[in-house]
Amino acid sequence: MTGTLRLYAFNTGWFQCRPGYFIEGEEGDYLKGPVPSYLIEHPKGRALFDTGMGVRYRRTLETALPSNKFGLQWFEGQEIAARLRSIDVDPASIDWVINSHLHIDHCGGNASLPNACVIVQSRELAAAQVTEEAGLYEAEDYATGQPVKAIDGELDLFGDGSVMIVPTYGHTPGHQSAIVTLPGGARVLLAADCCYTERNLDLMVLQKAVVDREAGMRTMEYLRRERESGARILFGHDGRQWAGVEEAKPLT
């Protein structure tokens, strides 16, 4: 590890859906959004924000989802363990996993990080434990044997303000995001699924999948204030934005 904080972005798969699933009321051909994971290297340890999908979503090019089918998939080499190894980071060296929430496409790689402690909002963990549902919350993804640190509200991960975990409820009962302050002072807000795309925020329109709309709109107002204050927001499944993200290199 280096003596300064570094943030890396990886795409660990694809999420295909109609535009109306991302932004209610919109129509058109199927969209293909990334399934991001972020490595935070800090002098005090390594953390991952979200871990992608489990092995059951791996496909080959021959068995890839048709372009007009709703679903998730990843291909060999996209899984988070392989993405980490591609920059010479051992998955066993990850100290913390920050799961934005416990849906299958955000914690499916947890099992490949054996020495990490998982950080999740306590209300999210409780929701997952009482809502076992295929394609949504599945224990084989989030109950993988590592210690779990269940929190309520904000957490300063390293005690220096550089990585702040913040509640962003709405999409799920206990969704959380992270704000990473880079060495030069730039602030990057890892939104995950509290806001799927930049267009959602531009229009102040929630995505279809929201369990608490009032909380979701409060979160959108929070994101708008953060953007106005200069934070760079990386959205949950924004294919257009992701085209401009340089993967596997420190973000600046």
Would you report the number of β strands?
13
Strand content: 25-35%
Radius of gyration from CA coordinates: 17 Å
Helix content: 10-25%
Query: Which class of secondary structure composition applies to the elements?
Result: alpha/beta
SSE sequence, one letter per element: EHEEEEHEHEHHEEEEEHHEH
Instruction: Indicate the CATH topology.
Output: Metallo-beta-lactamase, Chain A
Mean pLDDT, to the nearest integer, reads 96
CATH class: Alpha Beta
Number of helices: 8
General form = globular
Number of domains: 1
**What's the architecture in CATH terms?**
4-Layer Sandwich
End-to-end separation: 17 Å
Low-confidence stretches are none
Q: Give the quaternary arrangement of the chains.
A: single chain
Assign the CATH superfamily.
Answer: Ribonuclease Z/Hydroxyacylglutathione hydrolase-like
Strand order of the largest sheet: 4-5-1-2-3-6-7-8
How would you characterize the largest beta sheet? 8 strands, mixed
What does this structure look like?
With 252 residues, the protein is an alpha/beta fold. The protein has one domain: Ribonuclease Z/Hydroxyacylglutathione hydrolase-like (Metallo-beta-lactamase, Chain A, 4-Layer Sandwich). The protein is built from eight helices and 13 strands. The strands form two sheets. It has an eight-stranded mixed sheet. Strands 9-10-11-12-13 form a five-stranded mixed sheet, covered by helices on one side. The longest helix has 16 residues. It is globular, with a radius of gyration of 17 Å. The model has no long low-confidence stretch (mean pLDDT 96).
